[in-house]
Design brief:
399 residues, mainly alpha, globular
Length: 399
């Protein structure tokens, strides 16, 4: 029996999407060029289009994606409503549907039958083709979204999604147009053009970010890191990192990475609008990068046509590095157990103290500082080993 991906029978057309995309795109391709050629358009139209584009983009990335799909942080109700409003204005379905389907994508990434927008089925399919027909992989099942079903903001937006999506896309551009005395230019530029750009920028994460870029953290799926895509997608372009560490509120983890979504979430935490920001320990990041280096080194070694003596020498060097890596990882795992045991011990010794006092004692304890120092030493050991393995790979390239 054929699988859904291999079946010759095409699924039925998803008419809402099949109608929406032409309706929003045709005015941009036809009416807008004529309007710009025959009318003088002030900078205010472009400024507001840019502002709304960013608000919609951050509504998706900081809201739909990092808050609701992955729970990488907790948000104040005021921030939730803000993200629900402007995320809904992006017209990418309700939070509940978007986040639930995205969780399926992460669970079955690249599976041609189960991943709703699998890159293994080609650019067009992963970019927007998956939305134009009712494929089996897109069937809704909220069993993976019980937390969202209990979220009042999520469910209110879901029940009144048309107002959030279409109401905002009509009322806001028209209101701006009335304020500036030119409704049609705002509808074309801050309305249709802004919406079409926002759609395709978001869709690039499902398509290009799984096809174009580097894989410094994992090669187990097609996700890529791409700095150029990060510029277009509010920091979502660091996709290889995200697919390995999806619970991190950051996608761009280095200070020079362009990740305005991360900056927004962090800034909100300074004023009490967000909290519980989740970060992956640096050691785990270094470990993943080093494991990826070992994989590439072994692949390189398998294809070297060099003198047997030289080949044996390189194999021994790589094996020695692997043994040291394994020992460092084992020591780090042991250290994590010690940290947990030490924290439990301190708390058990003061069972009558308030929870916040126990936490303060643990944060200030000599034991904790000693364990942190050891952890940093292990992190530095991995960083140094990454440099050595990189040099070893260079030797393999010239062998």
């Amino acid at each position: 029996m054929d699988s859904p991906a291999s079946s010759t029978a095409k699924p039925p057309i998803n008419w809402p999407a099949a109608i929406m995309f032409p309706v929003t795109t045709l005015p941009v391709l036809t009416e807008l060029p004529w309007y710009l050629a025959t009318h003088e358009v002030s900078a205010a139209r472009w400024v507001w289009a840019f502002v709304l584009l960013w608000l919609n983009g951050l509504g998706i990335t900081a809201g739909y994606h990092r808050l609701w799909a992955h729970r990488t942080y907790s948000a104040h109700p005021a921030l939730k409503w803000f993200l629900a409003l402007f995320g809904g204005m992006a017209v990418q379905n309700s939070i509940l549907i978007w986040a639930s389907m995205h969780r399926v994508h992460h669970k079955h990434v690249d599976h041609v039958d189960h991943d709703p927008y699998s890159a293994k089925r080609g650019f067009w399919y992963s970019h927007m083709g998956w939305m134009l027909r009712n494929y089996p992989s897109s069937q809704l099942d909220y069993a993976n979204a019980k937390d969202l079903l209990a979220d009042k903001v999520v469910m209110f937006q879901h029940r009144h999604y048309n107002w959030f999506a279409f109401g905002s896309n009509i009322l806001i551009p028209v209101a701006l147009g009335l304020a500036y005395g030119d409704v049609w230019s705002f509808v074309l530029i801050a309305g249709f053009l802004r919406l079409v750009v926002n759609h395709h920028v978001t869709f690039f994460i499902n398509s290009l970010a799984h096809m174009w870029g580097r894989q410094p953290y994992t090669t187990t799926n097609t996700a890529r890191d791409n700095d150029f895509l990060a510029l277009l997608t509010y920091g979502e372009g660091y996709h290889n990192y995200h697919h390995l560490f999806q619970m991190d509120y950051r996608n761009g983890i280095r200070w020079w990475h362009f990740d305005p979504t991360k900056w927004l979430i962090a800034a909100c935490s300074w004023v009490g609008l967000s909290k519980d920001l989740k970060r992956v320990p640096n050691f785990k990041i270094q470990r993943a990068m080093l494991q990826a280096q070992f994989e590439r080194a072994r692949e390189k070694l398998a294809h070297i046509n060099s003198h047997p003596t030289r080949l044996t020498e390189l194999q021994q060097l790589l094996e020695a590095e692997w043994q040291q890596f394994s020992a460092t990882v084992a020591e780090w795992s042991k250290l994590q157990s010690e940290k947990i045991d030490a924290a439990k011990l301190q708390m058990s010794e003061r069972v009558h103290e308030a929870q916040h006092q126990l936490q303060e004692r643990w944060e200030a304890s000599d034991m904790r500082h000693r364990l942190i120092a050891l952890e940093r030493t292990l992190e530095q050991a991995l960083e140094m080993q990454r440099q050595r393995v990189a040099l070893l790979r260079m030797q393999m390239a010239t062998a």
